[in-house]
Amino acid sequence: MTDFHEAAKGGLTSAQLEEVLRQVGAERYHNRHPFHHQMTAGALTKGQMQAWALNRYCYQAVIPRKDATIIARAEDPAFRAEWRKRVEDHDGDDGWNGGIAKWLKLATGLGLHAEMVKGERFALPATRFAVGAYLSFCASRSLLEAVASSLTELFSPVIIGERVPAILAKYDYVTRDTLAYFEKRPEQASRDSNFALAYVLSHADTPERQQAAIDALVFKCDVLWAMLDALMHAYGEPGHIPPGAFQPEAR
């Protein structure tokens, strides 16, 4: 496993920086996580699938807030115009006809109550802490670091391509309509990551800024990994569900 913490020592060309960023995803993106492997193998119970959808909703719901925070920090109108597409993708025209609403449809399609999912209080504490850390990171670190942290979208078409066919093939209670959230995400993620990558390669123009961008992407991969760690700990065998969190058998 590569140690990325000194990857930019001495400085990198743009091509080298892009290679390092893509290597971060190859080694640390959460399609390598055992929980994802169990999902694509058809090994998760319906309760575990529900727990995944409920907890992931917390992350989906914070994305437009994170992106609005980034927009507020950007002085370039052209940057803001491009970045606000992300908010529109998730909020839609009225707040409830975009990606967040589609994720809620996924959760309710798995048998969860919409208000319970939207309330988020049955999510794991670790999920809420991870999501909050991501929002705080984008609000408190440099704009370059906030943008670089979004580069996990470079790799999301890969995980979607693994996840969707496997879920449809191996979980007979899931329909293509249930997974409507994923239909447009590869295209949106490619558009957004292309813009973000170009921004990072242009603005990470010193070894220090290059390292900050690399560290930001490592941090974001850690956030996504930690969320799946929490799910496995709580809902795996033997299972250690914390007080107040979703109980599949109690729904």
UniProtKB/TrEMBL annotation:
Residues 21-229 form the Thiaminase-2/PQQC domain. It catalyses: 6-(2-amino-2-carboxyethyl)-7,8-dioxo-1,2,3,4,7,8-hexahydroquinoline-2,4-dicarboxylate + 3 O2 = pyrroloquinoline quinone + 2 H2O2 + 2 H2O + H(+). It holds the Pfam family TENA_THI-4. InterPro entries: Haem_Oase-like_multi-hlx, PqqC, PqqC-like, Thiaminase-2/PQQC. Its EC number is 1.3.3.11. GO terms for molecular function: pyrroloquinoline-quinone synthase activity. GO terms for biological process: pyrroloquinoline quinone biosynthetic process. SUPFAM superfamilies: Heme oxygenase-like. Coiled coil: none annotated. The keyword Oxidoreductase applies. Pathway: Cofactor biosynthesis; pyrroloquinoline quinone biosynthesis. The keyword Repressor does not apply. PANTHER family: 4-AMINOBENZOATE SYNTHASE, PQQC-LIKE PROTEIN. Ring cyclization and eight-electron oxidation of 3a-(2-amino-2-carboxyethyl)-4,5-dioxo-4,5,6,7,8,9-hexahydroquinoline-7,9-dicarboxylic-acid to PQQ. This is Pyrroloquinoline-quinone synthase. It comes from Pseudaminobacter soli (ex Li et al. 2025).
